[in-house]
Amino acid sequence: MHPFAYVEPKTVKEAVAALSKYGDKARPLAGGTDLLVQTRAGRFNLDAVVNLKKIPELMSVKLDANGLEVGAAVPCYRVYEDPKVSAAFPGLIDAASLIGGIQIQSRASMGGNLCNSSPSADATCPMIVHNGVAVIAGPKGTRKVAIEEFCTGPGKNALAAGEFVVTLQFPKPSPTFGAAYERFIPRNEMDIAVVGVASSVTLDAAGKTIKNARIALAAVGPIPIYAVAASEWLKGKPANEASIAQAAAMAKAAARPITDMRGTIEQRKHLVEVLARRTLTKAIERARGK
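-> structure tokens emitted (290 positions)
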């Protein structure tokens, strides 16, 4: 690492100006738990680090009649320690409480986890099944990108030069909505998912029929995978074990894993089916108020 400037903008406009000034030699800092490690490892050759934690919008959590808005630099613990957020957005809580240990959760943010754009990121798939949208600021103004369209490759995403994520927005869920996220890791000392699956369902008033569903897969492709076919198939189906089993099999077919030091193709596909069944079952239970 060589010496670099440390910039602390107080507004979104100032942050955009700083990132534009230094170009590809600058990186925004939300929590820094990935950025600092990657910089020391030589992935980035930086002239500036732009700390986003002094910007109010990036550090706020708002829950109202329209839904939830989480600043991109809000540390994970502030999300899962909010009882109202925990009750309304269970899949997000599953993820926020899994990202590293308590020390990491005191710094790391779901926005940073998304922007790091790892295929195995714990926050991305739960945000997909909660219909999340990233609000992005940059030199050309503000725009929105659906979370399932944000990652474009390993470590790559939809952010253009000078852009950064300001907030993450999630619509207010229906009273019969439920979501869940689970992952498989090889051991506690290697806190990277071999496979992760997030599922959400919205049931009818009787709690017997699935009105809407979303399933997303982590660590089984170059980007987090929104399993569209399995999700669409569940619409109108009874909320029972047979429907869950069929959707899980379809989710398995959507996986595109590789074999590496953490798992084989066959193991990962099997785990997708297992975790899809578990998360769909839990999502339905939560939608029924259990």
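The radius of gyration is 19 Å.
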